[in-house]
Amino acid sequence: MTRLAVVAACLAGYAAAFPRLESHLLSRAAAPPQGAGALPVTPPPFDASAQLVSTSGQYAFVPPGPGDARGECPGLNAMANHGYLPHNGYATIAQFTEACQTVFGMGADLAAFLAVYGAVVDGDLTAWSIGGLPHTGIGGSHNDYEADSSPLHADLYQYGNLYTLPKSQASQLLNMQSDASTANYNLEVLREFRATRFQQSVSENPKFFYGPFTGMAVSQAAFTFIYRFMANKSSEAPEGILNQDVLKSFYALSGTNDDVSWSGCHNRIPDNWYKRNTVDAYTIPYFLTDVLYFSETFPQLNGVGCNNGSVNTYDTISVSTLTNGAYTAAEVAANPICFALEYAAADVPSLTGLPTAELGPLASVLSSATSELKCKPIAAINKGALEACPGFTLYGGPTAPVAKGAIQPS
Ligand code: HEM
């Protein structure tokens, strides 16, 4: 599917629901809050009372205590700190799916997929932990869910810990919009930061691995989610503005851009913060358009590759070899999310060792996503193609040895 076709599909919902609004808004200013060239073409509606997210009463911020799991995802940590997820950080598929939609306006398809994948790959099939141990939570999920070259969290083999948040990465992002009065960390800013973080992993993490699912889908989502979910929506900017205060609140950051402090997992939903409108839910097809937007300026994002054990040795892995000829590089570039999801579908049986019957719920959410995108299946993957990547391991755990030759800016 071309980017244009995906955009048209995403817009169909708006046009049907708000025909007059759409034509009126077509004449708006050329520089939209989300960044030039990024969806939506016309702003979504804004409904203050429906979009305000409560941070008081039962949803007041309560920091995690001893025994409460928190992990590398600021969105999940914030929902647990505010009681939208169980405070202990352990929740069922239904709880994750509902909370992501209620608090952030995530599409039902994306929320169900993320929640079910967590339960099958890092949980007990029905529930999972937002921190946890290897095999029992996304904290232990390096290379099955968690990935290298994340926005603000560390590369596992570069820092020996995937939770930590190097100040240099936070300062770098904050300084990309250094004037607090106008700052807006939108898709245009984030695609530049995405490319920078990829290149930093190449030049600093000897074991950098950019995988078919964790790299090309999860790691990309980690960047698009920053603007798509954290941005504060308003009648003036219904797509949202992500200013410094809101970004810092969600990421548990304080201090100045050049001297950032990070308070661990005290991620907070800001007061007076407005989520996405329900007709503007962030779905898997919408996410695909953002991935294609990112790769317009940095095409390497739509391919698999790794360093070979030393920095600056990044090489691509043939997707044709990896998929036994099912996908060409051109097909992957045209629809990287199809490739990533089909790869995940083919990989999950060996990744989990579970019988087909227990994989049914994941197979079902995957197949509804891939049939919506009209993806070509992968009959069998050839994981041997990844043996050239020393950073590729099934379960790295939340801590690991720092790789020889790793560079840690701060
Ligand atoms: C069930 C739903 C979710 C799951 C399973 C999930 C899982 C994850 C995982 C595994 C990572 C690590 C990615 C990496 O290594 O780069 C991550 C990162 C991230 N997630 Fe989530 N997440 C979910 C929902 C959300 C929501 C609702 C938000 C809303 C703000 C969010 C925002 C982020 C961001 C911004 C990062 C990047 C953190 C960084 O800077 O390193 N996620 N998430």
TrEMBL record:
<dbReference type="InterPro" id="IPR000028">
    <property type="entry name" value="Chloroperoxidase"/>
</dbReference>
<dbReference type="Pfam" id="PF01328">
    <property type="entry name" value="Peroxidase_2"/>
</dbReference>
<keyword id="KW-0575">Peroxidase</keyword>
<keyword id="KW-0349">Heme</keyword>
<dbReference type="GO" id="GO:0046872">
    <property type="term" value="F:metal ion binding"/>
</dbReference>
<feature type="signal peptide">
    <location>
        <begin position="1"/>
        <end position="17"/>
    </location>
</feature>
<dbReference type="InterPro" id="IPR036851">
    <property type="entry name" value="Chloroperoxidase-like_sf"/>
</dbReference>
<keyword id="KW-0479">Metal-binding</keyword>
<keyword id="KW-0732">Signal</keyword>
<keyword id="KW-0560">Oxidoreductase</keyword>
<dbReference type="GO" id="GO:0004601">
    <property type="term" value="F:peroxidase activity"/>
</dbReference>
<comment type="similarity">
    <text>Belongs to the chloroperoxidase family.</text>
</comment>
<keyword id="KW-0408">Iron</keyword>
<feature type="domain" description="Heme haloperoxidase family profile">
    <location>
        <begin position="57"/>
        <end position="289"/>
    </location>
</feature>
<protein>
    <recommendedName>
        <fullName>Heme haloperoxidase family profile domain-containing protein</fullName>
    </recommendedName>
</protein>
